[in-house]
Predict the structure of IclR family transcriptional regulator.
Amino acid sequence: MSGTPVQVPRSGRPLRGEPVLERAFRVLGAFTEAGEGLALHTLAARAGLPKSTTSRIAAQLTDLGALERLDNGDFVVGLQLLEIASLAPRGHGLRAAALPFMQDLHRVTGQHILLAVRDGDEAVLVERLSARGATAVKYRVGGRLPLIGTGIGIALLAHAPGRIRKEALAGADDAACVRRLLATVRTDGVCAVTVPNPLRSGPTAMSTVAAPILNRRGDALGALSLVAPDEGAPRTAAVTALRRASLAISRAAGP
């Protein structure tokens, strides 16, 4: 769930014939921040549904444990969703194989170490390790990232189906630069990019080194990245460390 605003019909009513399950996912997709509590009217507005419909669906989701209701009436994501999500093989299985190597990188660098998988035209973050003193970033486990504009997204895009790459490049501001980065990932197994820091505090730019995690057929299981303030220093050590870690995770994850 990406938190992208729902296109609400002018009538303010849900699309005719829209299945209840899809409406329920629109309600769940209204949550965009970890630990976020939403009042009913906010939940309805973000989901693009009438309050009465939202109230009924939210009550059902609460009964099932997918949502929980706070004392002030706000809704939060329930633990039942965490239990179910933890069983997802593309996220949980890869995370289990990657975690020891991510912890090594985390101890050595003291920065953010991210693990993501591709879901369609987006990257989904399945793990993040961050040191207490690391520069704040907006990445969160379960959050979605674009394939263009992030190092980990580029690493995934380099080994995505041709249709996904074509669509992503069509929307890129600098398609030539993206093509060069994709070629670097495919030839060197790693790329390094500098992106603007979306947070007002801290450095104006962040440096990302990312590497795909491939199976024996060359398909991307996921991608690994290190995110740190851009200090203009050589990235050779980070590039080497990320590349070695990605290869080790590929072997640990199996075929």
